[in-house]
Amino acid sequence: MKEKITANAPTGRSLTTNRNGHKPKAIPPDGTDHPAEDVTSSQPGSLPSPKQGTYTSDGSAQPFSFGEDQNGKRPPITPDAIEQEHGPLVEVNDEKIRFNQPAIAAKFVAEYRIVFDPTINRFRKYDPESGVWKALERADARSLLVAFLKTLADQLDLPGILPLRTNGLLNAVLSIARGMAKMGQPKDDELRIHVSNGVIRFADGKAHLDSFSADDWAIHGCAIAYDENAKCPRFLNDLLKPALPDPDDLDLLQRWLGGVVLGRNDAQRFMLLHGGGQSGKSTVITIVEGIIGGEAVAHLRTSHLNGRFETQFFQRKTLLAAKDVSSDALLKSGAKTIKSLTGGDLIESEQKFGGKTKLFGGFNLVVTSNHRTLLALDDDESAWLRRLLVLEFLTTPNLVKITKLADRLLAEEGAGILAWAVEGAEKLIEELQRGDFVLSAKQKERIQNLVLESRSIQEFIQKGVITEAKADLTGEELHDAYRQFCKARGWMPRSMKSFKIEIGELMVNIHDSHRRNDIARNGQTLRGFKGVALVRAATPATSRKSTAGDQPELPLEVPPSTPRPPAARKTHAVKSKATKS
Fold first, then answer.
1. C-beta separation of 304 from 312 below 8 A
2. What architecture does CATH give domain 233-450?
3. Alpha helices of 44-166 — where are they, by DSSP H?
4. What's the CA gap between 266 and 364, in Å, rounded?
5. Phi-psi region of 45 (alpha: psi -120 to 50; beta: other; left: phi over 0)
6. Who's near 206: CB < 8 A, 6+ residues apart?
7. Domain-by-domain residue ranges, the chain?
8. Which residues face 274 on adjacent strands?
9. Chain-centroid distance, C-alpha 73
10. Which of 24, 224, 256, 272 could form a disulfide with 155 if both were Cys (CB 3.0 to 4.6 A apart)?
């Protein structure tokens, strides 16, 4: 009969002794003492060696932390601390090896310094070289656990552990580790930017470079080193200044970019970049994405924002970007969510096979378009006025197209562009102490004009149509006049379909005129409205006032409607019914 060995018996052994009763040989952190088969053939490639962390046994759901003691040193992980909380890692009884899965999970989490991020359903491992908690793919987490069990087998002199590293054991230990390795949260009141050579912190609103810290809980980082003296002459002189000749607009872009590199939107505004083709607006956003890193950016699809799972892709992102969209992109029903995504609202996000999580709407957001993007106001114009920033990019004539201009500028002037953005962050921090972006008169007018253009049909009914008892207008006459109304203001008119849908309710609410089918024109009866007329050109002797009465009328020369040909109209016999007296 084989000798019965248990971890608690006097002749038994646990993590602290091997089968000979001696302390196990320590495995160097660099793994140089590991045999060649340290990594299983099913997981090719080298693995990083375990790192020591701090283990705390407070009975909470967070059994370890990464803080330092008063001397600035991390106390070593001791097997006794883990065994005291969870028991021995391994028990050998009748030559059978039994794993204490919670103890193994606690030891694995502490040594490899990993945490679990439930928002993306992934483990993260701290990288001291970048100061970032990098997400691990599921296969990478399993590979780390395989390597950890190989180290454990060497320490305990138990080669029998190696064939027991089955999928069932790996899945069970990783499942337990999820609950033990809770991820911390950065301090909301601390402003910082992670770059390749440290962390830019802002003391009294001024930037200074500091060392990395795991307690920052950074999950994104800029791959560019910060140099406050670096410059970007080509970025400014060749790309931005020709497109934004107004210095106020260039300054606004710099301050907005400062908020983007900070990774927060305390002003709760989002940026619209309008301009013709090859004006450089999309190139600018590509450069912005390169500065903050692609992992911090999510693609914004306004037509899908009402979908069940669309917002799950925004988890752990800081910038939402929609480039080169159509003029009606913000008229989609899902575009209403933009106000919540940028306004600090708490949004419920649903994940496929992962339940629901909360999403904080503090994103930076940018939309670029070759046309002015109209807004779905929904009688909430004041909210859009508070949210918008609008810049108009000018198309430079005879502009020479440079292939991959964004990549070239990032390679040649990346440090200078980053320094320019950090300078913008300093400006933004200072002005947000007063509450909001400081805008010029032209910038405010640009926002107000976009809001008015977005409600152009209502503006036309209020200012281009008057109440007149014996007059009438057909739908075609109203639409022709509406197009001239928009042209005089430099607006883009809405489609005929949108016009017909909206005009019915507006005519009732503003002029108390209902749509009807008996408007006589050239012997035909057409659809239209009675009791209304168009505002004509004002003259010194006479003028007409619209119902709004707060703006001068513009000339509206409208040709008479052409009646539909008889063949195109369907006539229906209507039988009159005698009413009972």
1. no
2. 3-Layer(aba) Sandwich (3.40)
3. 79-86, 101-112, 138-156
4. 9
5. left
6. 426
7. 36-180, 233-450, 455-568
8. 369, 392
9. 37
10. 24
For residue 36, report the phi and psi dihedrals to the nearest 5 degrees: -65, -30
CATH code of domain 455-568? 1.10.10.10
d(CA 4, CA 96): 9
**CA separation for the pair 483, 487 (Å, rounded):** 6
Residues 18-70: tens digit of each pLDDT: 444 444 443 333 333 333 333 333 333 333 333 332 222 332 333 333 333 43
Comparing CA positions, the residue from 226, 259, 288, 245 lying closest to residue 431 is 259
- CA pair distance 482, 479, nearest whole angstrom: 5
Report the half-sphere exposure of 264 (CA within 13 A, side-chain side): 16
Residue 158 and residue 165: Cα distance in Å, rounded?
13
3-state SS string over 196-250?
CCEEEEEECCEEEEECCCHHHCCCCCCCCCCCCCCCCHHHHHHHHHHHCCCHHHH
Bridge partners for 367 per DSSP: 272, 322
Q: Which of 102, 98, 86, 109 is nearest to 156 (CA)?
A: 98
Instruction: Calculate helix-pair angle for 138-156, 101-112, nearest 10 degrees.
Output: 110
Single pTM value for the model: 0.76
Please provide residue 239's backbone torsions phi and psi, each rounded to the nearest 5 degrees: -105, -55
